[in-house]
Amino acid sequence: MSGHEASPSFEQVFGRPPEYVVRSPGRVNLIGDHTDYTGGLVLPIAIDRAVIVAARPTEEAFVDVRSAHFRERVRIELDEMTADPAPAWSRYAVGVMAMLKRRGIKLRGAQLWIGGDLPPGAGLASSAAIEVGIALAMLTAAESLSRNWFTDEYDRLGSRSHSGLGMGTRMNPPPDELASLCRQAEHEFADSPCGIMDQLCCTSARSGHALLIDCQTAKTQAVPLNLGNTELIVVDTGVRHSIAGAEYAARRRECTLALEAIRRADPSITSLREMILDGLESFADALGDTLFQRVTHVVTENSRVARAAEALRASDLHTFGRLMTESHASLRDNFAVSCPELDTVVSIARSVDGVYGARMTGGGFGGCAIALAHADAVDTLRSAIRESYNSQYATRATVFTVRSTDAARVE
Ligand code: GLA
Question: How many Å lie between the centroid of ligand 1 and the Cα of residue 197?
């Protein structure tokens, strides 16, 4: 969905057109899941499906937010930071506004319409896209306030137009800071102890590249996405498990417990990131079976991400695909975050000639799997999913191709 398509919807709700539109992309993680919150490596791309926030600043002391997806409208009071009514999705909006305020940004009233074509809860980082989208919409409104009120000072410090990424302006925090502010909003207001991958991908990705993130330092590197004549196919299983949130938090806790157990045996180790496969066996007794499996996933997945980035640089898609498939097996067997529907999609994809590799992507327990397929194999893959998956499960799978895009921007 383009920003232009959002304008009529905004006008229908608020009676006049928006002043600007923010495009905030979802992500597909190519490889490296459940590694970000232990300081590991991840390799996502921002995709051409996005949350769109259409906006118009007002002189009111509240923000009027309309969610097209949930067909709900909430009013957020800027001095109290409360939403009325307060549906679950509004927590992201309130959280981001509270974090911007905490950072000393003087927020301004606004009318916001949130829509787009990124399915929520599908493991494509819709929460991060909403957070970053709202943050940029509110920062842009705040900056237009400063332009009106403090024109001289603004000119003296040097203004910048809102074309481009919309970040790094005088008032706007740089991409890594904006990402951690949004993650903090999610931790405090949505009760979700997520890592930094989704927000950082949304604020820092580049079209034509995957983003290699070292989550220990939050340093990013753009890796050219040399996909040759292959395509990246997303298969949304349609499964939205309610256990996902609790299980995610449980895995995170297990990783903390694992590090504590390892440190009791060897206090020189400060992070799971330092662990390598060689020698892991010596911690088997200290960890016990379950924690040993969890650490095995984290350690092998970090190594797979590093090798996958190298394979991508060298356009070695066979190696890249093989690593994707190995990653899925480890998420399923060692980290236990897959589900029968995701496993079925991956095994259907692997049975199709011309598919280099397939895996679940994101948090798991439902949501999406991805496959790297030769362009000639895409139609066969679609029909295979339609025939085998849709006849086995009550939910219907949706199959679509994704392309890499730039980070969130104000249009
Ligand atoms: C969710 C979280 C991310 C990351 C993935 C799993 O998307 O938001 O931080 O942990 O799960 O890789």
Answer: 7
Contacts of 156 (CB under 8 A, 6+ apart): none
- DSSP characters for 63-85? EEEEETTTTEEEEEETTTTEEES
3-state class (DSSP) for residue 361: coil
Which residues have C-beta within 8 Å of that of residue 153, sequence separation ≥ 6?
Answer: none
Q: What is the pTM of this model?
A: 0.92
Q: Which domains does the chain have, with CATH numbers?
A: 3-223 (3.30.230.10), 230-402 (3.30.70.890)
Which of the residues 33, 198, 214, 236 is marked catalytic? 198
Crossing angle of the two packed helices 126-149 and 90-102, in degrees rounded to 10: 40
3-state secondary structure of 356: strand
10 Å CB burial of residue 405 (0-12, 13-18, 19+) is: buried
Per-residue pLDDT of 228-274, as tens digits, reads 999 999 999 999 987 778 999 999 999 999 999 999 999 999 999 99
Distance CA 56, CA 144 (A): 10
pLDDT at 163: 34
- φ, ψ dihedrals at 89, nearest 5°: -65, -25
333 is an active site residue: no
**Residue 14 CA, ligand 1 centroid: distance in Å:** 35
